[in-house]
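Checked the freezer inventory, then went back to the computational side. Two predictions to log before the end of the day. The first one is the construct we discussed on Monday; recording sequence and tokens without edits.
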Amino acid sequence: MNAPPLTILVIPGDGIGREVIPAAVAVLQSTGLPLRFAEADAGWECFQRCGEALPLETLDAARAADAVLFGAVASPSHPVAGYRSPIVRLRRELDLYANIRPVFDDPPRAGDLRARRVDLVVVRENTEGLYAGRERVEDGGATAIAERVITRRASERIARVAFELARARHAARSAEDAPPAKVTIVHKANVLRETCGLFRAVALEVAQAYPDVQADEMLVDACALQLATRPERFDVIVTTNLFGDILSDVACAWGGGLGLASSANLGERHALFEPVHGAAPDIAGKGIANPLAAIGCAALLLDHLAHRAPLDVASDFRAWSARIQRAIRRVRVAGPHTPDLGGNAVTSEVTNAVIAHTLTS
């Protein structure tokens, strides 16, 4: 390939991020696609070393890169003067307003009473809501208040992402009996009448522009129950920031748990991909971290970069993304498995198995 390389900024972060992100990079390198990798520092340990959780040079490099591959952050559970979560700040600084969390179940094993086809995506508004950062303390510390911010602009653009995604997912299904494209708008407008009321109204307005996509709505508590008991009823779920954070964690139980969950943070100009599992300090440095979530991020990254790659190689990016996803599914079913999945494999063995399947699929 003679296409100029696209730049991937690699931020391993803390804990097992330093183990699983190199695994994802190794898989990307095995494709032979025109990619260039640069590395930068961020996270709690970075803050302890230099007083900045997200150094300015890292933020500048993220702005300049074609995509960011982010590992994990081991944020302290107590307030620390001067510390701000680097991933939250990156989402805001890069306006990564759409958090995309796909969930798919493995092919059911014989006798599995849960046998069902789970293939859904949670689309979460990523910049406002209760995560807008508007908190204050009153009454001399006796009262803590958080403001929930919902805007028409953010609601409209996240709804459009969801409906476009549902349309694209339907177009990619080859089976004639494939289910129709559907978006479920999730809210709590019966109680949060102004904030969720605005989100609901705007999302339903957007739905009118997509007559080929079914639109329904559901209260968030009902959605949580349905995700736990009937996940196959969902295609694309769109919701607000906090609700999306929680519901995507519930949904990922059908995809093997948080240790296997991948996510994309997308904006108009920038994109960041991160596994959901966190820094896992209890196993960091032992070489047994499961790399499949980070490798899943690599597949999402390639699919996204297909829109930025030159036309003569865009199809190659999509093809390699699909091959990596097939390889992940094979390893999830047949192994090797790290201890979190009941096996005794190390990170490198799982990584090598994915690469082998990717190159031969």
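The second is the one RB wanted added to the comparison set:
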Amino acid sequence: MKKDSSLLAWGLLFPTLLVLGCFVIYPALQSFVLSFQDVEPFSKQSFFIGFENYMVLFRSPDYWQSLRVTFFFLVMTVIPSLLLSLAIAITLDANPFFQNFLRTLFLLPVAISSSMAAMLWIFIYNPTAGFLNYILDVMGIQGPNWLADPDYALVAIAVATVWKEIGFNIIFFLAGLTAIPTELKEAAELDGASPRQRLFYVVLPLLSPTLFFVSVVSVINSLQSFGQIHILTAGGPMGESTTLVYNLYRDAFVKFRTGLASSEAVVLFILIMGATVFQFRMAKKRVHYG
């Protein structure tokens, strides 16, 4: 009977394992192998060159700039997204009258593709006919060319990214807030705890598993952002919005430096894994289950 259950379990898992093996595991292993090779463009010829691709990568000023841009983009998207979505979710949880309508409203940006969202923000950021500069002009402020100015391009992309992803976070935070027993909040209120004390000593500790999950997903999504960057600025101006992923794309599909791009993919994978492991270690003392 136990053997039959094991066979059934493996039979149910096989389609998923097959898809993962063909489209995730095999490409990842192939990228790792190619990172040690010099691949001739538009041919199957490749030559083993050891760590040469990694040496070229770490000597490249453009790569270090993309790493810097990625760090700032991570900070400008993850922190505002978490804080705004948490504040909105707490507000909606305390005022449930319009909760369903507002939850749907905030979730709408998540339902559209990154390309459609980017096209919408292109119209908003338009320097002459855009809505944002129109509002600034009414206020007597000369609006910049948001997507062509090196000082504003990354900020503009970050704002569009936060707008696109914030609904996803709100849904999870609302689910976590709903799971908190009302009795605990009422008991804290009867004991004389202020709203601030109830938030920091009751709500947030019980919400910490959800906060941890959302933060991990947000960091990974930020490090993998590509679509909105490609459409809004194409990595410009002057490389000020070229992240690690966009630099990888450019080396692989514009310059056709497959080996170098594969080494970038390996380094990006290590960075994402390192960030995730760091968050898990930090969460051991700060996340409370049950």
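For RB: The chain has a mean pLDDT of 88. Residues 205 and 288 are 6 Å apart (CA to CA). Let me know if you want it refolded.
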